[in-house]
Amino acid sequence: MTPDDIKQRIRAAFPDAEVSVVDTTGGGDHFDATVVSSAFADKGLVDRHRLVYGALGEAMRGSRAPIHALALTTETPEEHHRKTDRNDPR
Amino acid sequence: MNDLLKKRIADTIAKGRVMLFMKGNPSMPQCGFSAAVVGVLKEIGAPFESFNILADNELREGLKEYSSWPTFPQLYVDGKLIGGADIVRDLHARGELKKLVAGAPVAGA
User: Fold this and answer.
1) Which domain holds residue B89?
2) Inter-chain CB proximity B87 and A53 less than 8 Å
3) ipTM
4) How would you write the pLDDT of chain B (109 residues) with one tens digit per residue?
5) Domain that holds residue A10
6) In this complex, is the C-beta atom of B49 within 8 Å of any C-beta atom belonging to chain A?
7) Residue B65 is part of a domain; what is its CATH number?
8) Cα distance between residue B31 and residue B33, in whole Å
């Protein structure tokens, strides 16, 4: 699995999403992903993560799934910009 | 999933108000994400029960389906899934995990 494979699957489910994925170990099975999409509005964190897991489907399901670990950050565009602004002293 | 397994899962979740399904046990976690959640719970001084999913493959696979959550650790408070390591760390960073564990409703959880 490559970060691009993951990115593609997530974009297919969330067409508006800004997605960044990093292979944290270089082994193609541990990833760190940030997904920014308006689909997360009015949803709790558990439901947001479930949506992303759903988009990845078989890649995360079962003991032989190619993705062993996925650290996930899910934000709406508003939340993302608020955070970016705060981290960016202008 | 058969009813027997479903009941066993529900009973196991109900073993503690704060219940952690993890890889290994709190004194010897077998995975960095599980270790991180144990660390956070200890930091806020929350009493919790835990279950080692590496020792029970039937419950491990069943719980993923039961909760629609494909990974471990999984933290439950009052029978409700709070999330995995990312969410627990996020709630802790916002100071909300302690409130949640104390029984207060938390926005966005």
Assistant:
1) 3-101
2) no
3) 0.83
4) 899 999 999 999 999 999 999 999 999 999 999 999 999 999 999 999 999 999 999 999 999 999 999 999 999 999 999 999 999 999 999 999 999 999 876 655 5
5) 3-86
6) no
7) 3.40.30.10
8) 6
